[in-house]
Amino acid sequence: MKELLYPTGPVHVFAEKLQPSAGFRIQAIKVISTIVLFLITYLVLLAASVAFAVLCCYAGYWLVTEIPRIITIIAGLGLIVLGGSVIFFMIKFMFAVSKDGNDARLEITENEQPRLFAFIRQLTNETNTRFPRKIYLSTDVNACVFYHSSFWSMFLPIPKNLEIGLGLVNSINISEFKAVMAHEFGHFSQRSMKLGSFTYNANRIIHNMLYDNSSYASFIQGWAEIHGVLALLAIVAFKIAQGIQFVLRGVYKLINLSYMALSREMEFHADTIAASVAGGNNLVSSLSRIEIAKGCMASSINYANERLKENKVTSNLP
Predict the structure, then answer these.
(1) What parts of the sequence cross the membrane (predicted)?
(2) Residues forming a β-bridge with 108
(3) Quick one: which of 25, 106, 165, 247 could link to 140 by a disulfide (CB 3.0–4.6 Å)?
């Protein structure tokens, strides 16, 4: 392997500047408070849902056993399903996984790009964070750290992946590249945003719980089409779900408002980490170059789309 080209960092770094600011800590406390409020609200709703389900199951069992007619059997089974559907609505989102998918990403290995992997490994050591689980290339003028989020990712360590846009690589020099990468790793470094990472996961999970309901809606709709009695019970199930969402949505808004303020502090701190290992001048110049490159790329794509309408493509596109 050729000699690694790795820019040196600033000679004088004030260690106290690398610690989260007072503003960050205040915003983090606010976010955690709203998350605790959400968890308490959710647990109360879950307990009420369990009690409702038990009542429905008891009533359904009584109808089936004490008044054994076709209509009462249908109604009894419907009540049991109603209770189960409410529980299903409350817990199914815990096991949903949010995948940050991008078909344009191309995974690369250390055998293919040993110098890049060595560069990233040295940078993760310098920022005191873990090496990415996988590294991908894309066409974007951007770089990001991403991972698959689930309910359990709030409590368990989640391996993170790194995406590097070739548009970014072609727009900045090696020192600026180090600054951009350091900013991304700064979000997850041991000196950085463990609390912010937790709140980010919680925010995504809560969003899924409130708005990712297509499977539940399909289940209820299919159930309602079986019989008129079940259709009435399906309406009850929908109304209960809407009531639960109404309560949770209010708490979710509080979390979002707090998290927006925290996100700003997270960006400031990630910039501080990047400046400490790559120099503030490289961070500033990289941002300027990225903005110009994004504009150029957008213009090129728009031009290509216009020519595509005329059945024309450039020679360097398949």
Answers:
(1) 35-64, 70-91
(2) 135
(3) 165
